[in-house]
Amino acid sequence: MHADTTFLWGAATAGHQIEGNNTTSDIWALEHRPDSPLPERSGDACDSYHRWPEDLDLLAELGLNSYRFSLEWARIEPEPGHISHAQLAHYRAVIEGCLRRGIVPVVTLHHFTSPAWFSAAGGWTAPDAIQRFRRYVQQVRPILDGVPWVCTINEPNILAMVARLRSGDDPPESERGEPQLVAGALPPPDPDVSAALFAAHQEARAELSDLAGLRSGWTVANQNFQALPGAEALRPEWSYPREDQFLDVAIDDDFVGVQAYTRVLLAPSGPVDPGADVRRTQTGWEFYPHALAGAVRHTAERTGGVPILVTENGIATDSDEDRIEYTDAALRGLRDVIDEGVDVRGYLHWSLLDNYEWGSWGPRFGLVAVDRTTFARTIKPSGRWFGERAQVGLAPA
Ligand code: BGC
């Protein structure tokens, strides 16, 4: 029995990062370009396309009550207008697999990848992009029966920042070989892509609005912008295009997803490196577990009471002690924020599996290790620890 049955305790993944052979997607195409900026390819990934029942069994074995995963638009609509009923049936089976095991499905409709044809035709700013996305949502609508949480678009703010990579334009030298996108160091979101994503989100929500019991929202990358002395005036100005305008869009949503990993320090000239002495994770980010509490507080202030679901939080490390230390501190911070009165509905750790980190297999975020050749899964001590924590609640004595 879970200590608090309504609170979601789970783990998160995304299709392209775990399924393998997502060959009709734009990121697969980008990985295979001769001049690809992505040093490593996704390949078979974790073979979760075939091994999803095993993944769900792992969640159940850990005692977790929810799973966030994404549908691959590229599989469902591999060519414009061609809907694969077999792929819809595949994802319906995953949803039913969750429900059968008592695992609450949290389904993301778009997690960074689009069909290759969609991006080749101009991506989010093409004249018919929003209608195409809405038609995709219309197609997946019937398989969402029984799904209480739907995330329309994952990290639209990051998507709008890296729009240039996806469009196939050559990224500047500074972004090459830098798969772990550090939000603070990225260019500001493309305003046209941002506006298109706002519209796409609203259209998707409208398409799903009459499904009983379904809550929809989107998940924003919270960057914890912190002003160093002298940069106080810059902070809101910096944060608005990169984060706050995306939170403002969520004000009427059923929930908002918070995703937080680290912080970004702002000097009057812009983001600065936290310095050689700070503890870092495999992605090079500062080890900063307070990021979660900061992000939840900021999201609550900005959205004014929209229910919050932590849809991602975690750490890339080979040290399981560090993963436990980081997650424990993040959860304690979350408890404080809840005690302050913020409406938080759950915590989904990133990630269930060591997976493909958008250009690299180096960073390991998983509670479960995956052998890259046999695809054998091995629960890490941090996975066991997290499962036990889920039974105890947010702040053990
Ligand atoms: C994304 C994930 C990614 C994680 C760690 C988030 O930006 O939604 O796909 O793997 O952070 O970098």
UniProtKB/TrEMBL annotation:
Gene3D superfamilies: Glycosidases
Pfam families with a match to the protein in the record: Glyco_hydro_1
Matching SUPFAM superfamilies: (Trans)glycosidases (SSF51445)
Lineage top rank: taxon: Bacteria
Keyword set, alphabetical order: Glycosidase, Hydrolase
Similarity annotation: Belongs to the glycosyl hydrolase 1 family.
Record-given protein name: Family 1 glycosylhydrolase
Species this protein is from: Lipingzhangella rawalii
Lineage: Bacteria, Bacillati, Actinomycetota, Actinomycetes, Streptosporangiales
